[in-house]
Amino acid sequence: QVQLVESGGGTVQAGGSLRLSCAASGSIGSIILMGWYRQAPGKQRELVATVANGDSTNYADSVKGRFTISRDNAKNMYLQMNSLKPEDTAVYYCNAVTFVLGRSSPYWGQGTQVTVSS
Known about the structure:
The protein is an all-beta fold.
């Protein structure tokens, strides 16, 4: 089991920046991939960015060049969001995928609201 807690959301004007944090606890040694997803009102949850063990990263086209995902150890993950746009407004969720005995399992945080005003 892995527990995830996000922080750092808030309201910012367009063009501004925010930094989201995700703290993992529990069976963190089994985590193989972490990432950020977001869900805007009336829309499906979508991938924002992921970072795998070994630090390879992947970004949605809509955030490339503006957002940066990072991990400083097995416990903490961050999302630096620059040049924010109103369309970035959503609830942002931290995600972790574990791999144990040949089986992968996803875990989710409770979400943190990001609101970008125009």
